[in-house]
Amino acid sequence: MALNPRTTRYEFFGPPGAALVMVGTTLVPYLLYFGCQGPDRCPPPLYTAGPWEGLVDRLQALTVADVFRADIFALYVAWFLYLVVLYYALPGSAVPGTVLRNGQRLPYRINGFRSLLVTCGVMFAVYQFYGGHRLFLFISDNYVYWLTSATLFSTLQAVFVYVRSFRRAPPNQEALLALGGNSGNTVYDFFIGRELNPRIGSLDLKVFNELRPGILGWFVLNFAFLIKQAQTLDGGITDSMILIFLLQGVYIFDTLIFEASVLTTMDVTTDGFGWMLSFGDLVWVPFTFSLQARYLSFHPTVLGPVNSGIVLAVAVVGFLIFRLSNSQKNIFRTNPHDPRVKDLKYIETESGSKLLISGWWGLARHINYLGDWLFGLSWCLTTGFDTPIPYFYVMYFAVLLVHRERRDDHKCRTKYKKDWDRYCSIVRYRIIPGIY
Ligand SMILES: NC(=O)C1=CN([C@@H]2O[C@H](COP(=O)(O)OP(=O)(O)OC[C@H]3O[C@@H](n4cnc5c(N)ncnc54)[C@H](OP(=O)(O)O)[C@@H]3O)[C@@H](O)[C@H]2O)C=CC1
Ligand SMILES: CC(C)=CCC[C@@H](C)[C@H]1CC=C2C3=C(CC[C@@]21C)[C@@]1(C)CC[C@H](O)C(C)(C)[C@@H]1CC3
Question: Among 79, 101, 180, 210, which is most exposed with the fewest C-beta within 10 angstroms?
Answer without folding.
Answer: 101
